[in-house]
């Protein structure tokens, strides 16, 4: 079995959430550990397991089609780690301005953010490193690249 630690800016395009897959397929949550050539991944510091779609057994392909598509998404905690955004901004009842700009979905009680759509909204290439901070903390424009996304928040990139 191959196990990977994903960088926080990695999209889950070729992965499925194990917590959802094992329920849909009606198998043990640890069944993947006994598959030949299994490839699993998780983000640093998390226990959430993702299965590579290419390693799913043929007899479970129908179950795979019933699982949510995570293309472009990243785990919410990985998104916060990557962008330095406080997790409180990803809660609807906190009335954060950035919450309205993000595509957020929850699968089996696990929250995901569409990082690819956020890059597209910003008009940036996917290789850029981004960080979100209050605008008044940024250096003047020629020294630091930024995009204003709310009246108080900006995205810096390099």
In short:
The chain has helices at 18-25, 61-66, 76-83, 115-122; strands at residues 2-6, 15-17, 39-43, 50-52, 73-75, 104-107, 110-114, 130-134, 146-148, 153-157. The protein is of the alpha+beta class. The strands form 3 sheets. Strands 1-3-4-2 form a 4-stranded mixed beta sheet. A 3-stranded antiparallel beta sheet has the order 5-7-6.
Question: Can you give a write-up of this model?
Answer:
The chain is of the alpha+beta class. It has four helices and ten strands, in the order ββαββαβαββαβββ. The chain has helices spanning 18-25, 61-66, 76-83, 115-122; strands at residues 2-6, 15-17, 39-43, 50-52, 73-75, 104-107, 110-114, 130-134, 146-148, 153-157. The strands form three sheets. The protein has a four-stranded mixed beta sheet with strand order 1-3-4-2. A three-stranded antiparallel beta sheet has the order 5-7-6. It has a three-stranded antiparallel beta sheet with strand order 8-10-9, with no helix packed on it. β9 and β10 (153-157) form a beta hairpin. The chain starts with a strand and ends with a strand. 22% of the residues are buried. The mean pLDDT is 95.
